[in-house]
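Let us walk through a complete example step by step. Step one is to write down the protein sequence. Step two is to encode the small molecule, zinc ion, as a SMILES string so that its atoms and bonds are unambiguous. Step three, shown after the inputs, is the structure prediction itself.
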Amino acid sequence: MTTRQPTSPGLLERLEKGPVICAEGYLFEFERRGYLQAGPYVPEIVLEHPDMVRQLHRDFVHAGSDVVEAFTYYGHREKLRVIGKEKLLEPINRNALAIAAEVAEESGTLLAGNICNTNIWEADKPETHKAARAMFEEQVGWAVDAGVDYIIGETFEWVTEAMAALETIKAAGKPAVITFSIVPHGKLYDADAVEGCRRIADAGADVVGFNCGYGPATMRPLVEKVRATVSCHVAALPVPYRTTEKEPGFGSFKDPDRENLPGGDPFPTALDSFACDRYEMGDFARHVYDIDVRYIGVCCGAGPHHIRAVAEAIGREPPASRYSPDMTKHATRGTDPIIPEAYRRRVE
Ligand SMILES: [Zn+2]
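Step three: the predicted structure of the complex.
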């Protein structure tokens, strides 16, 4: 096996100079397209349709992502046990990493490994901690073999579990980005969300913050508090949904206009009417970048149009900007002199 050379400049050098954009949300996007099942949410697609995964990585890079995150989210032992396919554990991880490495290589972007919430961690059961650490170690090992530039530990709801993930990543000698997914009312299960970030930062994470769960409106005040609390870099990767103080996470939405939704709630497969447009995600990115939050992205629900808006909002011009809107050429709303007067919409 040939060892991949690290990307230069690496994550920390890029963050010293400015923003790093990281597109996430692969699970939701492939579920929406009909190639991944809601509920289990296991990324078997990396074996079944590798070309689609490669293309979505390329789409996100084209739209401005500086990072290709290997699609190993929920490709871990607990989820594979739930669907009775533990034998696919290593092939899923190695394939996901190889696909991501290929796109990172061709585009000069950063290659990130990924570990996440194990779904087995319980604070007062040490045997679950041992099992979770073993899960982190095997996935981090495969990521290291693939030559990743850094490793993301994401959507943790326990600070103690995130700490175990951080220790595993640091022991492997890789930079660590640790992000929490906040449970309702702004907390983690075993700590306040901001306090959790402070503890992870103190323990040596290179980047700490939040991803998933909360939309831009509800994540923003928490990100501001974290920025004011820690001295390391801060991450902010909300879901593109219009969360509110009353419904702070996308799991808490109720839709009074929809009486017969399967499961009763819009989450996770009927969130369409709560979606943020691209400009809202751009506004969020600009705001957090203004307060020196440099690791910025979008999680579940993200499309390339959101990522392009994030990139443009912080002064980038990714390849996809070639196709950013020019409404002066629109058939009825345009102002271009070639458009017949009779076709121009009159607003009076
Ligand atoms: Zn997410």
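Step four is interpretation. The chain has twelve helices and eight strands.
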